[in-house]
């Protein structure tokens, strides 16, 4: 009937390997989570003290900005992205239950814009993406309560747990759709209104 049959490519090209980071941006603290290079499981990393936008101050302390103008909280996340060879940093976008955006949403967008700029300045190619984080803090409280932990004493753990939930949701969405989750943040399209 004919010549040799050429093999058919049956495997889909997956997403490029690389750890993913998950960020829960709060007014006082930032929860940080990370995944393995294959993006299978999210685990807590740490809670980073938040630097107040525009002031460079961390809860009444002296300014904490680097020589390049990057705040200590953003610099810590950039360092983690570099150490883990992160492909993506997912930042939680806190919308209202109705889906509308408010002050916390604008703050998360501004933080993501600063993070994009700092990653670019460090020569890092990791994408920054905003993902819906409605109910993550509530879910983190419930999970810690179910595990027998008193949330009043473990606020930093709540931030990390919320970051894990944000990241795991993004990882699950990646696997389901075969593409990165969320909204890509680009420096030229997002402006920081807090500085």
From TrEMBL:
GO terms for molecular function: hydrolase activity. SMART domains: YqgFc. InterPro entries: RNaseH-like_sf, YqgF, YqgF/RNaseH-like_dom, YqgF/RNaseH-like_dom_sf. It is found in: Cytoplasm. Residues 18-140 form the YqgF/RNase H-like domain. Pfam families: RuvX. Its EC number is 3.1.-.-. It comes from the Bacteria. Keywords: Cytoplasm, Hydrolase, Nuclease, Ribosome biogenesis. HAMAP family: Nuclease_YqgF (MF_00651). Could be a nuclease involved in processing of the 5'-end of pre-16S rRNA. Belongs to the YqgF HJR family. This is Putative pre-16S rRNA nuclease. It comes from Promicromonospora iranensis. The lineage of its organism: Bacteria, Bacillati, Actinomycetota, Actinomycetes, Micrococcales.
